[in-house]
UniProtKB/TrEMBL annotation:
One of its GO terms (biological process) is regulation of transcription by RNA polymerase II. GO terms for molecular function: cyclin-dependent protein serine/threonine kinase regulator activity. InterPro entries: Cyclin-like_sf (IPR036915), Cyclin/Ssn8 (IPR043198). This is Cyclin domain protein.
Amino acid sequence: MATPATSGLKYLSNALATAEQLSNSSSAIDGVSPDLEASIRFAGAQLTQTAGILLRLSQDIIAQAIVTFTRFWIGSEGGSLRIHSVKDVSAAALYMTAKLSFQPTSPRSVLNVYTFLLSKEASPLWFVNPNGSPDKPTPETYHLTEGGYQAQRQVLLRTESIILRTLGFNTHVALPHTIALTYLQTMGVSSSAVAKRVFEHLNSALLSPQLLYATHQPNALAVAAIYLSAREVGVKLVDSDWWEVFDVDREDLGFLVVGMGSMEGFARAEVEKWKGRGVPMTADELDGEMERRRMMQEGE
């Protein structure tokens, strides 16, 4: 990934994916179709979000983990879904991000949460348990034995090291949330409804199939979320092209507004597309899904 051009802004900027990286992922090279890759990344980001909530981590830690998870799969030098299980990368990204923060969590806590969320009988996640989890799942369905913990702990730590090597040990993630609040204050916008909607858009953009956090800097994400939120809530912002003051051009603004505004429709389409089936969370499950699609094509 390309590094920020100005070293003085490195704490407010992120390394961004190049056009070549976006068009040529390791998973695509290994034969994973773009729509299947997008579905699995979307589910993996949701898995990371839900696990972070159950671990009672702050949203900024969860958001950084999702960005790290997303970056891992980008480009021909990134990880391939045919080799690395999305569940393992999700768990390692969350564990690593929390470890580097003021709110570290233990491997056992992480693995207990992921065992529960990936249980076919107990999970509340639609892409793991499409038929819905029972109101009171029995603990036996998501119990992690001591032997299972030791084995999964080794996988967790090994995957953490793979993520670090793949990203060149660049774990820095700048988020747009605080920047957005600063911009709102600068423009004199005091509406709590706008601020709430801004955060909703910024959080949902973490799951974007267009990889918005890997293609645009935090200031652009903040501006787009403010523009879209103010329009939705009905709050008039300052006159003139105010986004240019924050170093965002009209073309980028338009792209981001469309991307953020389309997230609700994309999420609903994904749920409908996978209705009655689980999204592959492991490399073996992905191979099974690819074989199923191949047989369907041959049968047509």
